[in-house]
Amino acid sequence: MTEQPQPFRDPQLPFAERVEDLLQRLTLDERIAMLHQFAPAVDRLGLGAFRTGQEALHGVAWMGTATVFPQAVGLGATWNDELVRRVGEAVGDEVRAKRAQDDRVGLNVWAPTVNLLRHPLWGRGEEGYSEDAGLTSAIAVAYTRGLRGDHPHYWRTAPVLKHWLAHNNETDRDTSSSSVGPRVLREYDLKAFRDAVRAGAVAGVMPAYNLVNGRPNHVSPLLARHLRTWTDQPLVVCSDAGAPTNLVDSEHYFDTHEEATAASLRAGVDSFTDHGQDSAVMTGRVRGALERGLLDEHDIDTAVRRLLHMRFALGEFDPALDPYADTSAFDTEEHRALALEAAEQAVVLLKNDGLLPLDPAAGKTVAVVGLLADACKLDWYSGTLIHRSTPLDGLRARFGADRVVHAEGADLVRIKCADGWLQVPPARGGQEAARGVEGALDPALLAGRTDLPPLTCGDTPSELALVDWGNGVITLREPDGRYLSVAEDGFVRASADEPGGWVVQETFRWEEVEGHAGGHRLLHIGTGGYVSVAADGVKVAAPGEEVSGGTGTVFETEVTERGEDAVARAAAAADTVIVVAGNDPHINGRETEDRTTLALPAQQERLWRAAHAANPRTVLAVTSPYPYALTDAAAALPALLWTAHGGQAAGTALARVLAGDVSPAGRLPQTWYTSDAELPGLLDYDIIGSRQTYLYYEGAPLYAFGHGLTYGEFTYGDLTAEREGDLLHVSLTVTNTGTVASDEVAQLYVRAVAPSVARPLRQLAGHRRLHLAPGAAERVALTVPVGELGHWDVAHGRWTVEPGAYEIQAGASSADIRLVTVLTVDGDPAGPRPLLVRGLEAADYDEQLATEIVDRAKTDGDAVTAGAEANELLYRRCDFAEGVSGVEVLASGEGAVLITVGGSTVTVPVPATEGPYDYRTFRAGLDASGVGDLRIALRGTVRLARLAFTGSGE
């Protein structure tokens, strides 16, 4: 007789039944253990170990070699959903292929990042797709569908969206709070997550480090109220690394870790990423919370149930049926070609006065100059390159090595110390053993090495290449390409191929020494110590350590060649100059570090100016994940391009675009401003009130959202828009009237003509990237839900589409609208605020000045407090009906609430309550009738939650 399998092993049963069977077989300790990122095996049931979390933002990361695709913001710049889906499929296949060789590789991938690129100085802008929620959603849906696969039951990988919610600053990221009103929350921040989740290819989300409205994201009630209502899929919520501990240690939101752990689990966090692979700390906190009655087994089972469902979907229990189990596609020809295609499509042509494309057959000389001319930069979430292509590599291959001139443009310096010059001794035994694929030095093998000799001070100076990356941050590199780096023993060695690591050990800053003309100390940024010369070599003194009579050695620098001089010589010797500028993704703008300015670093400004002065045929190619304020360059130079760091094929892609093999058609996924003066505060999340992003910005940006040129010419015609039920069917014809085949990105926007509240100047409602031969035309059909015309009505607490006229706009960018048609939508007007019926939630304002939304209680609810003495909350069109005679104010803190209606102000004193969460009701008389605006000012530490009104007849 054949023994029947345990139900959880029976593939004929639905996942839900199998999960329940397995859940009942697990002991309490085994279930608690599954709540940690590194869940141990359960040998008695034949369960293997499981880990949540595998970085796969634009390729498999942190697990050695992989195909490296363009950065996420570069994928956003393609505006090509179909392409991004194919990239997701390739990345998912490589995750599976690497998993077959290395069980450290996880199938629960933490990607993509859908945080909106609201502020261009955000350090992690490289990880997002766009400042627009619609474009972000479309690209995220495409990528997650590729990662997930198309099998109805089994998933290729299980994608987790990052980072829930309203996360757009690295400065104080684990203690700062994003003040997000109901409209911005629903119309902007939630939308980026919602559409991807509803598409059915998302396995979960990761909460962000920050707080929203005074409450940490890891205990957010919005996980239950919104996220888990968008799908029937049992989504898994994985904490960010160390965030559960932050709830107590840095945020001080809870007094004990047991309280914090219980609160996050009950709010919906299922997997704790904390204390690395040591699960004992977090599981101990869970047990402590159980013992204190802060949790019960139901809370634990709810989380484990979701985790087990994900494991079943990944085929763990059905390897013979898993269609992805034998995937071996890794570094295939198709993946290499796709990496090149993605890099080509990510290039954005910002300006072209006819200089581009260049003709490789013309036999002209091209100078390729700049600090990134011979660089193929990676970021924190890149895999290790198998193949690499720099702009210099690409142009030499396309134009001929004998017709390409190169000058990097770094300053060449010698550094003098008291007894001689800094010198780099030869590396003992050479570096060949440390070289990786295709001759590239593997930074993992070089950075931090202690077997290489440290720098010394001697008679023979070493010439070092100095690059100032902006904000005073410099790197120093010796002639064979090794960067000066600091190992754990504190010695300075030439031992790194590139700056990198969680704490970058290759960056320094010169600091002037008072009373010593020309003298500087050299601060090592990674450790905070100063570089000093000692008998046993050059080392970094511990912060505050006295060395050689002071804190660090005083150095003098002798410049042997200015970078701009070398660039000018190369430019003068060429027919055309390509200046490649931009950033290093590990410096001045990355995870943990926001940028401080939109300005291009001064050294790079000097380089393009020197090139242009020597040769007017100068092209500036910016390679970065961020916008820059290139106002002068845009005015002076005949051509500008931008692309994100394009992965392994970046150089080849740029060369093919410059040569005209490919017509550029990337589009900007975020606004490029003219200067820092146009930017809002980094922590100002009220995009409506402070007029942020292309949606509300009323100025003239340098380059608008959606901007991008091609080598072709396109016309738009025959725009039609018809409503059918809850959908708008919009069609237009795009024709290539130029002489070259090219892609074009048709963009559809909507605008409320006469809205009753502040609405976007225009909002992206659809897009389509299409390829057209010369003379060819294509009819583009787009479908828009009527609900996309709407907004969150704070007065009535609902989503509404106001009746009236709406413009349907089609064009090549948000600033290049070619066609407009008007559609009239019927409906019921919203009407005034029904104060006597609904009361007034303080956070439901129409406008605000200098206030901040805070948590009403630690579990749920919002209140408003003053951010400055001069503050105001404005509530428009309040209906006082036949009249009100009094008001009740629910508030905490100490101070007063000033209520102004019709020119009369009533002051409601708020005596001191017992802490910020001790809300009490305070009453005052108020005489008002009819419909009018209501204004509130807050004094002291008052936290205002709600107002209720008493009718005159009551």
UniProtKB/TrEMBL annotation:
Q: Which SMART domains match?
A: Fn3_like (SM01217)
UniProt keywords, alphabetically: Hydrolase, Signal
One Gene Ontology MF term:
hydrolase activity
Question: Can the keyword Cell inner membrane be found in this entry's annotation?
Answer: no
- The UniProt record lists the Fibronectin type III-like domain at 744-814
Q: Spell out the SUPFAM superfamilies in the cross-references.
A: (Trans)glycosidases (SSF51445), Actin-crosslinking proteins (SSF50405), Beta-D-glucan exohydrolase, C-terminal domain (SSF52279), Galactose-binding domain-like (SSF49785)
- What family does the database annotate? Belongs to the glycosyl hydrolase 3 family.
Q: What is this protein called?
A: Glycoside hydrolase family 3 C-terminal domain-containing protein
Upper taxonomic lineage:
Bacteria, Bacillati, Actinomycetota, Actinomycetes, Kitasatosporales
